[in-house]
Request: fold
Amino acid sequence: MSWFAKTFSSTIGRKIVMSITGLFLCSFLVIHLIGNFQLFKDDGGAAFNVYSHFMGHNPVIRVLEFVLLAGFVFHIWDAVALTRRNKAARSVGYAMNRPQDNSNWSSRNMGLLGTVILVFLIIHLYNFFLPTKTGGLDKVMVDGMMIDNLYIRVAESFKIWWYVALYVISMIALAYHLVHGFQSAFQTLGLNHKKYTPAIKTLGYVFSVLVCLGFASMPLYFFLFK
Amino acid sequence: MAGNNPNLKPMNLTLKVWRQKNNKAAGALETYKAENISPEMSFLEMLDVVNENLAHKGVDPIAFDHDCREGICGMCSLYINGRAHGPEQGTTTCQLHMRKFNDGDTIVIEPWRANAFPIHKDLSVDRSAFDRIQQAGGYVSVNTGGVPDANAIPIPKSIADKAFDAATCIGCGACVAACKNASAMLFVSAKVSQFAMLPQGKVEAKTRAENMVAQMDIEGFGACSNIGACAAECPVGISLENIAILNREYLGAKLTSQNV
Ligand code: HEM
Ligand code: SF4
Ligand code: FES
Reply:
């Protein structure tokens, strides 16, 4: 193996990949959230459709889409590799164990939380992303252009109670994933300093709660008020 | 003895102890009575009493690790009621006193669980994986020559204190035992950062970080998920900051060392 492959298949190397991809995915969440706020505009979905048309056709965004895919692939790949290794490191467990006395639940269940997020992602992409690629959506005229009416698909989906429940539960899982993950990524990257770590922890907490509340507010808004 | 002090009354306890003949045999929790135990005894002294009774009855005594019995050697272990070194923070098992338990309690005692720490017998585990990690780089090579003056190498007090704190690791393995991933990162980070902070240790810092981490991975310990159970259970309070330092040292070494 080359030194490079050895480095990034070591336990620390894999964690460094997880932390960089994890923080990159956090930046994606911010962009995705801000864009999706177009859903709240009371214009019958015009602003949201223009925005999603832009995201689907702008060449820079199209390239970034592949970077994002790579981010997910590496994050999930190393998540599986590490979780399997960590499980294999203790084949006989304790008859009596009190981990709640020394650590947080979310930090011990990142694999479980990640799996919930992954299942959500697959359903989410199948429902909203795939149809924009396969032409499975109704068209609508905006500013003299025929574009996909993704808004209608979203509005209809968010009228289904179990779909809304799935979104809310998944956002709770994401929030817990990030409550641990955000600050953990900085520690993995070697940033632990008494001047900055308390601020990073607070920021991580606020980030996780606000972003996930933001995403969860969309299905709830459509379900309750539309 | 102040006879009417309830805290000093002898206690009767039920122990559930992991018994396992050797590394190959199957093990199980066995129940024993610990009677007439003084609250002033250490946990290990309590086990000594139990073992004496077992020996009288012709039962094989319970094997457990111990040496200094004053919290400095790192030999004693034991997962007691679901916690490494028992319920107290900042103590080894030899420093844990029976007054922390109540008369009539049932106490579950298990060995450190990690595939990298195979069981010798009962509660005694083989921690030579730590020795091999140390041998991979946990030292400073000293070439012969005159003894330098103690003050020849200036080291700021804040750095010296941090290096000293890291150097207090006694190699007990509680961090591994408490970690969900059976990760040895707190131990390795203490050993790496202790030297990385000091001028004498900087000389070999890159190779040290690379080799000790490589050995840690070979031994089959898990990775670090930054859970923090290790630092919470560490008897000498090794801080998680050391793990951040190790990660920096390791990545920096991998990217810039001459070792390919
Ligand atoms: C938008 C989605 C996601 C974001 C923003 C995200 C973010 C993060 C961050 C910041 C970390 C901390 C990295 C570190 O400790 O250094 C992390 C860890 C982790 N993630 Fe994710 N993640 C996402 C999705 C997923 C998915 C889909 C999975 C799994 C299928 C997953 C599994 C994990 C696991 C297992 C860890 C812990 C690794 C360890 O410490 O051993 N994540 N994530
Ligand atoms: S870091 Fe703490 S818990 Fe781990 S071996 Fe050293 S002293 Fe024991
Ligand atoms: S016996 Fe030496 S630390 Fe407990």
